[in-house]
């Protein structure tokens, strides 16, 4: 076992070693944003409302449930909606149609696991993936003429103008998390949140925002509100669905490949599930036959009846022949803003039309 002194030396050495990299990264972010602000880099405008759901940290804030929530909210107000995502981790490039709202004929590997999930959750909504958001927006305008385009994970992508920038912050984050990478999880400095129109603290049902971060947010000229990630009362399976209450008393193991595994742990605990082990994979992991074998071995070792996973991961398991006989079920998570937050969002959306 390493002594505390050795660990301290190693951490300090790594900080010095990584400092030039952090300085270079900060410089790139600073000048890029400045060039957009002064108009040296051109932002393009589309003939419809454009709303971005993004963050300033490395994943795990709940963007996908928030995009699904916003899409349904806009539809309830009579708007036609389309979605653009980068399609992180996909095996394709360029503009790829995930769904026209009726037909989904793509694999998740070709479009990314999160757009694939959104396509299952949002029938009737055209979804494309494109690393060039403006090009993707032009495609949607030409083929579907939506009233509103939602940009998934686009706070840093300033090539396309937007009417509204909504930024999510994970309420579980610590002050140490909120340092620029590689020292922390921030993709750009905290003060860049001034570009946002609205901030939501997510997963406040799992943890309250730290007093230090809350104080920072309150100093910004941007309203901030709370939101929760609630679990639905039914677990979805590969062959059938189960009421959550039926699973609570049974021994289960969890498996996930998400950006916030701690949040998933806390969700399982809050749901009253009897989870004895959590097998974690990197975010966006592509499961294999050897992973299935590992899960079965773990189930047998702890005498577990069920495997509990995320809805995103369940869709990936559904494409594997070896997984078809697994007793695996996915938790469906719902983004729910505070009443004040939803009213503020609706007000900003209405004002941005003018």
Structure notes:
The protein is of the alpha/beta class and 354 residues long. It folds into three domains: 1-42; 49-230 and 336-352, 3-Layer(aba) Sandwich (Rossmann fold); 233-331, 3-Layer(aba) Sandwich (Rossmann fold). It is built from eleven helices and 15 strands. Strand 9 and strand 10 form a beta hairpin. The radius of gyration is 21 Å and the shape is globular. Mean pLDDT is 91; it is low at 1-10.
Q: Give a quick account of the main beta sheet: strands, pairing sense, barrel closure.
A: 9 strands, mixed
- Going by helix content, strand content and strand pairing, the class is alpha/beta
Span between termini: 63 Å
Q: Architecture of the largest domain, CATH level 2?
A: 3-Layer(aba) Sandwich
Low-pLDDT ranges: 1-10
The total beta strand count reads 15
Instruction: Report strand %.
Output: 15-25%
Write the layout of secondary structure elements.
Blueprint: H1 4-38, E1 49-54, H2 63-76, E2 81-85, E3 96-99, H3 108-111, H4 113-121, E4 127-129, H5 133-144, E5 148-152, E6 164-170, E7 198-202, H6 211-218, E8 224-231, E9 234-237, E10 241-243, H7 244-248, E11 251-256, H8 261-270, E12 274-280, H9 289-302, E13 306-310, H10 311-317, E14 328-331, E15 333-337, H11 339-352
Parallel strand pairs: 1-5, 1-6, 2-4, 2-5, 6-7, 7-8, 11-12, 11-13, 13-14
Antiparallel strand pairs: 3-4, 8-15, 9-10, 9-14
Key terms:
about 350 residues, alpha/beta, Rossmann fold, 3 domains, 9-stranded mixed beta sheet, 6-stranded mixed beta sheet, 11 helices, about 35% helix, globular, disordered N terminus
